[in-house]
Write a structure and sequence with these properties.
Radius of gyration: 20 Å
CATH architecture of the largest domain: Alpha-Beta Complex
Strand content: 25-35%
Structural class: alpha/beta
Number of domains: 2
Largest sheet: 7 strands, mixed
Shape: globular
């Protein structure tokens, strides 16, 4: 089969013929239809410092996907949870099942998580195998492009729904695809004001399409968020913050504009350590919560229900390419003037 492979310990990706995977005990074999390009994939293609530490070649990339089940192991067939013909996406964090958190039902906190497309061969291929326990069956009709990005959509939902949002004022720092999806979720979930910040006019325009109250360009401005509060008639700061950028200045600006007793969910992953105003954090009694991945599988239920309830993610998807044009697709995804970029494995 064809697959996108990190074949060498150097920058680049290679479209290669590799053996088709098999459905081992407890697993299913899935024919891949669409995949989404993630920032992780860009890091692996570039082979930066993180990728050099995390990835062992050769490796098939990809963890955002939708596909059709073509084979299930006998024990999976007996359980009746997944069947050939099902349209599925996959939870890309494979957990051990035996640690304290896994046994307590907190699988998203497993200390021994293995990443699909990072440690285990992934979904940038014509077929992928996955444990049945990691498969999410789509019960209702769904656009394939949207189904392909359930993984990052889950990050957005997990972050946005970490704290109550109804009638609250929400600040989102970072208008990348996940930040924009989180803004759509916050608006759909009943937030009063949803303000998003970024330094990319293109991505701020995308954010406006999902109905944010304000999309603020913070380039060269130390008061953009304060000015935004005044424009909205806010008096006491933001109730909920969703930090999606991983930038020190973004978190510092968020802390400076939170109300007393506010809550911050932090998904953005910093590239290095940085300082914050802990006196502000303490004296304003602000809650800071780290977010990684999705809650298994509560977040997946929430995603499906949000889409069934009319949440529209189509503005976030800005490009689709045949897998054969992967270089162009990756260049698009890395260029910054895009939302989510999709690879079509049927074209």
């Amino acid at each position: 089969m064809k697959a996108l492979v990190k074949a060498k310990a150097e920058p680049g990706l290679w479209l290669m013929d590799v053996p088709e995977p098999e459905a081992g005990p407890g697993e299913v074999l899935i024919k891949v239809l669409r995949t989404g390009i993630c920032g992780t994939d860009l890091h692996i293609r570039e082979y930066d410092g993180w990728a050099r530490q995390a990835v062992r070649t050769p490796l098939v990339l990809g963890h955002e996907f939708v596909g059709e089940v073509v084979e299930v192991a006998p024990d999976v067939a007996a359980a009746g949870t997944v069947a050939p013909g099902d349209l599925v996406s996959g939870e890309g964090h494979l957990v051990c099942g035996t640690c304290r958190n896994c046994r307590a039902g907190r699988r998203h906190l497993c200390r021994s998580t293995v990443g699909l497309g990072v440690v285990r061969d992934g979904a940038f291929a014509e077929y992928v195998s996955l444990p049945a326990s990691n498969v999410w069956v789509h019960k209702t009709k769904l656009d394939l492009d949207v189904a392909a990005i359930f993984d990052p959509f889950g990050n957005a939902v997990h972050t946005a729904l970490s704290f109550p949002l109804v009638n609250e004022d929400v600040l989102i720092t970072g208008a990348g695809p996940i930040g924009i999806m989180a803004a759509a979720v916050a608006r759909h979930a009943g937030a009063r004001n949803v303000v998003i910040t970024d330094v990319s006019p293109y991505r701020l325009e995308l954010a406006e399409k999902v109905g944010v109250s304000l999309a603020l360009d913070v380039r060269g401005s130390k008061t953009a968020i304060e000015d935004g509060q005044r424009r909205l008639g806010m008096r006491e700061g933001f109730d909920v913050g969703l930090e999606m950028s991983g930038r020190p200045e973004a978190l510092r600006g968020m802390l400076a504009n939170m109300t007393h007793g506010g809550s911050i969910a932090m998904l953005g992953l910093p590239s290095e350590e940085f300082s914050i105003d802990f006196a502000r954090l303490v004296t304003s009694m602000i809650t800071l919560k780290g977010i990684y991945g999705r809650e298994m599988f509560e977040t997946w239920y929430a995603m499906s229900v949000l889409l069934e309830g009319g949440l529209d993610l189509s503005p976030v998807i800005t490009g689709r390419y045949s897998y054969r044009d992967f270089d162009t697709a990756f260049d698009d995804a890395a260029g910054g003037r895009c939302g989510k970029v999709i690879l079509d494995w049927t074209a």
